[in-house]
Structure formats: structure tokens, C-alpha cells
Amino acid sequence: MEKKMDLFKENAVVRIRKGAGRSLKAGGAWIYDNEIEAIQGEFENGGLVRVEDFDGYCLGHGFINTRSKLTVRLLSRRKDAVIDEVFLEQRVKAAWDYRKATVDTSSCRVIFGEADFLPGLVVDKFSDVLVVESLALGIDRLKPVILDKLLQVLAKDGVNIRGVYERSDAKVRLQESMERFKGFIGEPFDTKVEIVENGVRYLVDVEDGQKTGFFLDQKYNRLAVQNLCRSLAPERVLDCFTHTGSFALNAGLAGAGQVTGVDASQLAVDQATENAVLNGLSDRVSFLCADVFDLLPKLEKDGERYDVVILDPPAFTKSRSSIKQAVKGYREINLRGLKLVKDGGYLATCSCSHFMDPELFTKTIREAASGAHKRLRQVEYRTQAADHPILWAAEESYYLKFYIFQVCDEK
């Protein structure tokens, strides 16, 4: 039965059906409603529970929400774990220590949900501002404590945060029977935050930008494009789905002669144009508001060709049920993009959909190349930046696939 309880109180036991919980036992963190045999004891949705196998063997501790098909998310697999403020501080410190060891922390993802063993929580750091996204009821209850501990951990390293903004406005919160929300946590501040990444300056709109305001996961993929363009000195670059202009600006900074960024959002184009001015690149980097799927065939028809074409589309699928349609989208966009690359030029292409697995994405690009009568020479394959760690056995943490190819005509 459901009853009001303390934040760290654990009175209920969730017992898994015999033969169920295979993903959990393989290292995952999720238990679905159809895997549960029984819930014994008193609990409150969002509260902590002990998880046991059908025979009583302890599988760990997590938080529960019976209003969600994803009913339990595990916080610890250890039998003797005590979920309290000390536990949460250890989790937060471990996440920050990992970032310090692996990435440039001036702007980075500090907490990445399940991959940092804090399921349902994302925290991005943009210079001296934090942006928080909470996607699960249980982590929402623990969020104030986690943020307090995070601010303390950062302060001990001399990192002082001037403001925190919450972007818990994703539709997925509705699946947890939670309202969508965005707003300040604490005192208000200017929500246009300037950051520097790979030498490029950006104004990040943490209030109205997509997701948390900026896609940090492509940090080193953008650097790879910058390095390529510095060596290549391309005359013309086309950056499709440019968002706030990040790949285009990296190409421009590296010395590309003329860079065109395209996005369907006028807000994104306006922000990208502002970023070009900020970097002194507006004479060489310009942006166009257009539907990429409509624009690319027109450019091909007009005989336009580019030394470098960059394809960074949004996720065409967020579920397995729509994967076939997504494959068509990725195949089409890559085929059109390939046709616009000069012989010996370069294509950078990626997918940020977890459900478009690496094998399927590779197969789709191969089919697009065949359809465009192009030969591909792989320069490099990359994934998301290390501040978005890929936790093995937690498949959802691996989502970004990024290729750079040299594109050759049939020879």
C-alpha cells in the first residue's frame, strides 16, 4: 500500500518474477512493471525500495513509481548499500572526478543519469551555470540533496556556480505522471550564457534552447571537423541541421572559405548568426532557415558542390516501433548529402538515436553510398564525448554515432 514516508526510508520490497529481470541481472538499472511478482510493505511512489529476486536474493536498492511502466530504477546493486546523503555525495563526487580526468570541464555534462548511477538525472555545466533535467519521480525527490552536494563538491575545487536552471520540460516526464517544468532553482540570472569550446565562443540559451540549451556530446566531434578543415582549407562547407551553428563555426574558425549552415528553426538560425558575429566570422559563415530534406535536392539540381558536407540531424526515431521510417530518413539524407560532395571531398555524418544501432547506421550509410554511386573511405569513427559515458550493459547510454568519410566518385 502507498503511504507518506521519509526521503531515505526503505520499508517495501519489490520481488522479481522467476525468469524475469534479465536486463537488470546483466548490469542494467531498470525493472518494468511486467517483471514484478509482488510488492511487499508500505511505500510511496518515488520512494526507496529493496529489490529481490524470486528466491529472496537481494538485487539492490532503487526507487519505485507504480504509475510508470518503468517501475523501479536501481541506485545501487550492493546488498549493504544505505541510500542517504553520504551515498549521494559519493555518487556526485565520483561523477565530477571522472569528468576532471577525461574532459575539458569548462563546459561539460556533469551527471549523465544511469551512466553515473543516478538514474533519470542530467546536469550540464555551462561555464558557471548548471542546467538540470529530471526525468524520474524518485530522482526528482532526491534532486535538492543531489544539487546541494554537487555545489559543495564543485566549490571545494574552486568552481563557483552563479545560478541553476531546470529544464525538466521533456515529454517523457508525462510517462512518470509528472508535470513538465522549467524555471530557476534559486535566484534568477541572465539565461544567455557565454561558453568557449574548442576555441569557439557560443551564447547558450539555457531557457529556450533545445534540451538543456546546447549539445555538449558533440564537443570532440566538432573538434575533429575543425582539425580536418584546418588541414584541408576547404573552399565551401555545408552544415545541415546546424542548430546554433556549432559545426559551421568550427569549420569557419579553421579557415574554410565559405560556410553555409542550415536549420528549420528560425530561432536556431538567429542564435547561430549571433554566434558567428561573436566569433568575428559573419563574413565567411552564414545561416539559412530551410527544411534540409527540401533544400538538398534543390542544391543538387542547381549543380552546387561542396568540399565538406556535415549531417547532424535530430533523432529520427525515439522508439523501436518507428525504426523502419527512421532508416528511410537517414538513407535519404545521406544519399542527398553524398551527391553534393565533390570528388575527393569529405562527409561528416551522425545519428543521435539510441535505437539506430551502430550496425544499422553503418548499413544505412553503405546503402546511401551505393545509391549515390560514391565510394567511401573512412577517416574516423567516433561516439559521444567522454562526459556522456557509455556504460556497458546500459544500452541506452550509447546513442551517438559519428563518421568522417572521404567521398570518391566511382573509379
Give a concise summary:
This protein is α/β, with parallel strands linked by helices and 411 residues long. The protein has helices at residues 22-25, 85-102, 137-156, 219-232, 246-253, 266-278, 292-301, 323-339, 358-372; strands spanning 12-16, 30-32, 36-40, 48-52, 58-64, 70-76, 107-112, 121-126, 129-134, 163-168, 181-185, 192-197, 200-205, 236-240, 258-263, 285-289, 306-311, 341-351, 374-382, 401-409.
Coarse morphology: globular
Mean pLDDT: 95
Uncertain stretches of 5 or more adjacent residues: none
Measure the end-to-end span. Answer: 71 Å
Radius of gyration: 23 Å
How much helix, percentage-wise, in residues? 25-40%
Main pleated sheet:
7 strands, mixed
- What fraction strand? 25-35%
What is the succession of H and E elements? EHEEEEEHEEEHEEEEHEHEHEHEHEHEE
Strand order of the largest sheet: 16-15-14-17-18-20-19
Description:
It is a single chain. This protein is an alpha/beta fold and 411 residues long. The protein has nine helices and 20 strands. It has helices at 22-25, 85-102, 137-156, 219-232, 246-253, 266-278, 292-301, 323-339, 358-372; strands at 12-16, 30-32, 36-40, 48-52, 58-64, 70-76, 107-112, 121-126, 129-134, 163-168, 181-185, 192-197, 200-205, 236-240, 258-263, 285-289, 306-311, 341-351, 374-382, 401-409. The chain has a seven-stranded mixed sheet with strand order 16-15-14-17-18-20-19, sandwiched between helices. It has a six-stranded mixed sheet with strand order 2-6-5-4-1-3. It has a five-stranded mixed sheet with strand order 7-8-9-10-11. The model has no long low-confidence stretch (mean pLDDT 95).
